[in-house]
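Saturday, quiet lab. Running sequence design on the structure tokens for the scaffold JK sent over.
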């Protein structure tokens, strides 16, 4: 009986210490550079502002925000390989003072310091993220969503780019909290 108690206690403890699975909120599909620039322009990103890219992939939005817009840019990416790739690129460009990637779950982050957020997630992922942003974001924070709108939010601006050079159109949505 004593053995059974300790075995059950060990199993319960082991289950509690198991790393939680991170839900994949979108497939990795890189945003064309021309669209990255339009996203940052639409959000009127200014030098020194704090911006987050949620699901930052290879880091291209974070890098452009830091390099061309001189913003304090942070990406959040759960995929370890993409995290490493983007972190290595930031280091090779010597942007560590203004650009960084967090290897983590976007649903577990604090975005309260954000002036601007960029997202390229699926519609149901935007739905899951919306309450977190509503709770955390300060008044005036801009959110630019690529291709997929946030349900129940009215965009301040909507911009359609007919052809990105890759043969497809894109829609950008600008929201302000």
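Result came back. Writing it out in full:
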């Amino acid at each position: 009986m004593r053995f059974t108690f300790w075995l059950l206690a060990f199993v319960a403890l082991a289950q509690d210490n198991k790393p939680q699975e991170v839900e994949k909120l979108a497939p990795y599909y890189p945003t064309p550079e021309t669209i990255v620039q339009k996203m940052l322009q639409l959000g009127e990103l200014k030098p020194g502002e704090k911006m987050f890219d949620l699901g930052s992939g290879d880091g291209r939005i974070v890098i452009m925000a830091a390099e061309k817009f001189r913003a304090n840019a942070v990406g959040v990416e759960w995929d370890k390989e993409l995290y490493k790739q983007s972190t290595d690129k930031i280091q090779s460009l010597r942007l560590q003072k203004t650009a960084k990637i967090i290897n983590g779950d976007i649903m577990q982050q604090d975005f309260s310091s954000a002036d601007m957020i960029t997202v390229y997630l699926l519609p149901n992922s935007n739905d899951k993220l919306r309450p977190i942003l509503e709770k955390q974001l300060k008044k005036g924070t801009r959110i630019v969503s690529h291709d997929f709108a946030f349900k129940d939010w009215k965009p301040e601006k909507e911009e359609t780019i007919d052809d990105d050079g890759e043969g497809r159109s894109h829609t950008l949505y600008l929201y302000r909290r």
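Notes for JK: Residues 1-20 have pLDDT under 50 and may be disordered. Residues 2-16 form the longest helix (15 residues). Ask whether to fix the surface positions before the next round.
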